Amino acid sequence: xxxxxxxxxxxxxxxxxxxxxTFRLAPEATRVVSRLHFAPNPxxxxxxxxxxxxxxxxxxxxxxxxxxTPEVTPEGLRCEVPSGPFLFEAEVEIAPAKNTALEGLYMxxxxxxxxxxxxxFRKITYYPDRPDVMAPFEVRIESDLPxxxxxxxxVEIGEGFAEWHDPWPKPSYLFAxxxxxxxxxxxxxxTRGGRDVELNVWVRPGDEHKCPFAxxxxxxxxxxxxxxxxxxxxxxxxxxxxxxDFNMGAMENKGLNIFNSxxxxxxxxxxxxxxxxxxxxxxxxxxxxxxxxNRITCRDWFQLCLKEGLTVFRDQSFTADLRSAPVxxxxxxxxxxxxxxPEDQGPLAHPVRPESFQEINxxxxxxxxxxxxxxxxxxxxxxxxxxYFKALDLYFERHDGDAATIEDWLAVFxxxxxxxxxxxxxxxxxxxxxxxxxxxxxxxxxYTLTFHxxxxxxxxxxxxxPQVIPVAVGLLGPNGDEVVETRVLEVTEAEQSFxxxxxxxxxxxxxxxxxxxxxxxxxxxxxETRLFLLAHDTDPFNRWEASxxxxxxxxxxxxxxxxxxxxAWLDALGQVLSETGLxxxxxxxxxxxxxxxxxxxxxxEKGVTPDPEAIWTASERxxxxxxxxxxxxxxxxxxxxxxxxxxxPDAEQSGKRALGSAVxxxxxxxxxxxxxxxxxxGATNMTQQLAALSCLVRAGRxxxxxxxxxxxxxxxxxxxxxxxxxxxxxxxxxxxVERTEALVKHPQFDASNPNRFRAVLGALxxxxxxxxxxxxHGYRLLADHLIDLDSRNPQTAARMAVAFxxxxxxxxxxxxxxxxxxxxxxxxxxxxxxxxxxxxxxxx
Length: 844
Ligand code: HT7
Ligand code: ZN
What we know:
Belongs to the peptidase M1 family. One of its GO terms (molecular function) is zinc ion binding. This protein has 844 residues and is of the alpha+beta class. Among the domains are: 4-181, Sandwich (Immunoglobulin-like); 296-512, Orthogonal Bundle (Neutral Protease, domain 2); 709-844, Peptidase M1, alanyl aminopeptidase, C-terminal domain (Zincin-like fold, Alpha Horseshoe), CATH 1.25.50.10. The strands form 8 sheets. An 8-stranded mixed sheet has the order 6-5-9-3-2-12-15-14, with no helix packed on it. Strands 17-18-19-21-20 form a 5-stranded mixed sheet, with helices on one face. Helix 6 packs across helix 7 and helix 9 (527-536) packs antiparallel against helix 10 (540-561). The longest helix has 22 residues, at 540-561. The relative contact order is 0.06. The structure holds (3S)-3-amino-4-(1H-indol-3-yl)butanoic acid and zinc ion. The site of zinc ion has 4 residues, from helix 3.
């Protein structure tokens, strides 16, 4: 496959002045008639006229009304064109019912829908399918289906047809069409400027009651973007559609967002608190794209982080504002470490702005999204809130309507603040997680911190230069009082010192507060200091971090030396847990222990080959010890976690339920499942029901509860995904593979539905000890299913292949087994470009 390079960017030779599309929908033979007005692009180099097009049957084509016979290849169409403006017309035929890749126009449960980002539009018609070609679209849909939707505003809806007009020039990846038997949950929003906007959430009949939360989240997002970023909505209608078969979470098509039904449908009976929070965040994310992505889009796909990093940062800030900022920060860092760090530290490492790719779908990664958001957060920390918003205002003013680049983005910050960001730009080009270490010295009332930074090599990038690292630091006095409040130190050199004067005693530093930069802090901070920080740090993140690192060390000692869990840490943590002034959600997070995959990474970093069974045993032992040690405290915590009021998925109630679930998990270690059984039977919402079921699965007392759950929810696809996933994800290492094998044969397993596939095979990949079973059975099972899925849905198959990215960490036996599976996948005839790129990168 061909590799595309950032440095080869060249603008398209023509502009599309308007695009008019007519769709005559039929499952096996949809006709798409296009009328495209082209005019030469004065700034572009001379080139052939080439339009992207894949899997299309060309019926006819003409230029200025004259029939033509273009040269057609599997990638597109080439023809001679006039030197001035011209009208290109074409008619093509496509088969949405046969489209299993879920890119372009496809069908899901009898409904037509589209997914065009990144390069799906070329499967709909011939077009310059690249983000820097923007045009206003007029769309006519002809079909007997009752609901026919496209982007922009409604022009006319009649018997068997609908016409839509999107006045905002957009790239083809933001095009969308939906047709089906849908019902709407309607709402209304008046913008700050007085525009009345019709809002709709469209779902299958029967799902209406699961729409109100999404609608409220949408309105809250619209208001937040006005209040915080000064951004208003710009059309008279905003539609959201829920689709069951969808490769990712949701898509921000202009005025017509299409959502995976799991990211929109919510009710207390069927959704957990975590589902509600996720839905709220995804609704916000897609809505925020209207400005950061749609009004200002990307010049090319290398600039993906321009819209994604910024929009993730915006949705994270939204959740932090609406809920608890410290809890959100800890959750985001947990996610970053679980998903982005392994990427940055393994064979798939790439810069936030990659410089080459074969298949762009493979670069919708945690690095582009989550590390991309961290980079924005660092920029804001460095310039301060006021200058950040000044720069953002300039960005919107200067680039509205543009297809922009990271250079454009950094230039607005330079112009708004007068700063030189040339070194900061390395965050976009240098892959890998920087390592930071500090030394302390104290003399004559002056305390000095000396930082050292280095970034290990990553594939294709041997040498790394120092980064700009904002390190938030506070100092605590010997009695635990804060003697120096948080200050952001700008570390720019490989080695650099900062001094604090006028101190009466040597302080204890609290470094990298709020996780102020996406780095690994390498210090072996003495255990006593961590215990001190756990007890006294005023920064909630670092308080949590102190406990987490103590937990990690205790577990590592348990794995490598068979040590008992660290009693001093458990006692100190017990103290924190009983601080009733701390919010329950924070205490629930404090109760969390490092995931087994996190321990594997930590051991590997220390030069120890991780043994998945030993990690599992140590984790189980720790959970057992925690329960026994805190037995006396559990009833009081359970009491505090009680929610008497009617169910609301807000921060307060969900925090309490999170604490209650964590307590129930410990209780189950003591009573073998008696309390969990009672909680399962008495549950009044999905959060409680699933928490209780999880405890029973872990305790191996799940047979009846799983049957009851199935009987209750067998007709609800989204809830059934939980049922499938849970019993694999939480199974013991000896049974996880067998359970997966049984569940892929279950009549309700459907590999063509990405949610169901991910629920089952993703759960296996996420069960660390089960997946890494020494006989390689877990590896083989996953590889079999990835090979099978690749022929139908390469995008989802390739994304899930990342389960193998850590293969070089393990012992020789496991390495050989995983390598063999990767090679077996690579050797499969007809392997997709998506999968072949992923596997070859992992094999190195
Ligand atoms: N911008 C979207 C990214 C995306 C996508 C979404 C659904 C299906 C396939 C997709 N490929 C790329 C989602 C987002 O970041 O908001
Ligand atoms: Zn996005």
